[in-house]
């Protein structure tokens, strides 16, 4: 995004519009990681059981992941789903870039909405940090039967160094 800002004609306008959003994005990730550090150090607790109870009530299983996990798995589908999931880390930036270029008057609304969404997400992470199914299946929780955490398996097969970089708060996914 910043490289594009260096080559666009309206560099100053680009930086004035984008620096608040990019700064908020970096701050969001840092606070998200700090919340997890607080949880790891025992300053804050996390939740496991309410999601298991809810899925059992709605779907009849402790985690919807379990009955569909092995039925629909293939190496190609694993890769496609992981790439689709990972695309959300870039899609909002690319969408914003296209919006800034095509309809700049709407970019400020987009930026404000995205920053508010990040703020609400952080509040949710701080108030109800929830263990995702893949973690609920592992020690020390072991609340549901074990299964393969597909994102981790795919990423560590291809780019193990990168996987740890993006895994800053596993209890923020819910």
Intertermini distance: 28 Å
Most strands sheet:
none
Count of runs of 4 or more consecutive helical residues: 9
Helix percent reads over 70%
Cα radius of gyration in angstroms: 19 Å
Low-confidence stretches at least 5 residues in length (pLDDT < 50)? none
> In sequence order, what are the helices and strands, one letter per element?
HHHHHHHHH
Give the overall form: globular
Mean pLDDT: 88
What is the number of strand segments? 0
Structural class: mainly alpha
Give structural notes.
The protein is mainly alpha-helical and 174 residues long. 71% of the residues lie in helices and 0% in strands. The chain has nine helices and no strands. 12% of the residues are buried. The model has no long low-confidence stretch (mean pLDDT 88).
Which helices and strands occur, and which strands form pairs?
Blueprint: H1 2-7, H2 11-40, H3 49-59, H4 65-69, H5 75-102, H6 104-127, H7 133-136, H8 150-158, H9 160-166
Helix pairs in contact: 2-6, 5-6, 5-8, 8-9
Brief digest:
The protein has 174 residues and is mostly helical.
Descriptive keywords:
174 residues; 9 helices; single chain; mainly alpha
